Each structure stands twice: as structure tokens, then as C-alpha cells.
Amino acid sequence: MTTRAGVILSGGLDSTVCLAIADRDCDEVLAVTYDYGQRHKVEVGHAAAVAASYGAEHLVVPIDLRGWGGSALTDDTIAIPDDGGAGIPVTYVPARNLIFLAVAVGIAEARDLDAVYIGVNALDYSGYPDCRPEFVDAFAATAALALKRGVEGNPVDVRAPLIAMPKADIVRLAIELDAPLHLTYSCYRGGDRPCGACDSCRIRAAAFADASIADPAS
């Protein structure tokens, strides 16, 4: 049976490993990247390079999350901290993964895709509520009710294969799958070079250090 999947691809470590998994497990892959007004828009170009390395179609979807702000990633008046601090950090974008998944399953229904992959991780992450298994499970159940194919008994399979993996294990899996880590980008500040200080940079650096693997993108 032919399996066709969409992968939400930011151009970062986790989403790139998700694309590598989908490329391994599926017959056809569509990479979906969101240009949502993020401060680190440079990641869109990295996503394009990752998708091209797999020969995958790359669909860039514009969504103006900057229009209402509320996050350091979409509002230039909110500084990106070097340390996320206690609680949910200011780099949390309200409802981002909820919106991304809603659009992705809509694309899946329109394109007749069987699955949607998302690279959320509930262990080594910044504390975002939309990275938890409870959210992914609840969303999948809602999508099954909301889509035509779900009502017809063939729901889009929402897959979060990295959700329970330590970040170092994600790095090791990337090496095992020969994922193009040299093309990836992880920095909230969005400069030509990662800042090395924000949560995204620090979590990535710790993952490579814990895996005893040099980061090819550094």
C-alpha cells in the first residue's frame, strides 16, 4: 500500500529528523513550511534546502501570526531571553502548533495524504504546552471528527515520532538516518549565524554534547 505523508518542516533539527523518518517509512513526502512572521525567518531557506536534499516537494504556507504578536518570536518589542526562565517562556507562540497542524491536516485531505508528521518533543524542550503528547492525541481525535476522510473511516494519521525521545537520542537517530544536519538551523534570534545563547541554541548544543557528536552546522 502506498503511503503519502506531509511533514511540518521548520528547517531545525527535530523537523529535519522527522522528514528523514518519513522519507524512510513513506513512499512520497511533502514538506510543509510556515512563513508566519517569525523573527528567525532565515529558517525558511534552511527548510527549502533540507527538502531539496530529499527531492521532496516543498510547500511554503504564509500565515501572519505577527499580526497579533504575543511572542518574542513574532513581536520585535519583546526581547528574546538567553534563558527561558521558569514557566512558559516568552518565545512561546500562542496556538502555533495547533494552527500548524490544522493547516497541515487540511493540506493532507486536499492532497490525499495519509499522515502528517510533526517534530514536537516533550522532554528536552522549552516548556511549550503544544509540544505535549496530550495535545497531539487530542488534536488527532479532533481532526478525525473534522475531516471528510475521518468521517469516512480513514483519518489522517498524526505522527509525532520524536515526542518521547531525549534530544541526544534525536541527534543519534539523525546520524543513523544520514539526515542533512549541516543544512539545519536552530536559533530564535535569526541571525546569519546562530547566537549560541537563546534556548533553541542551548538545547541544540546540549543535545550534540550529550550525544558526543560534533554539530555539523556550527
Structural descriptors:
218 residues; alpha/beta; Rossmann fold; five-stranded parallel β-sheet; 7 helices; 11% strand; globular
How is this fold's topology laid out?
Blueprint: E1 4-8, H1 13-25, E2 28-35, H2 42-53, E3 57-62, H3 96-111, E4 115-117, H4 133-146, H5 148-151, E5 157-159, H6 167-176, H7 199-210
Parallel strand pairs: 1-2, 1-4, 2-3, 4-5
Structural write-up:
With 218 residues, the chain is α/β, with parallel strands linked by helices. The protein has one domain (4-210): HUPs (Rossmann fold, 3-Layer(aba) Sandwich). The protein is built from seven helices and five strands, in the order E-H-E-H-E-H-E-H-H-E-H-H. The chain has helices at 13-25, 42-53, 96-111, 133-146, 148-151, 167-176, 199-210; strands at residues 4-8, 28-35, 57-62, 115-117, 157-159. A five-stranded parallel beta sheet has the order 3-2-1-4-5, with helices on both faces. Helix 1 (13-25) links the parallel strand 1 and strand 2 (28-35).
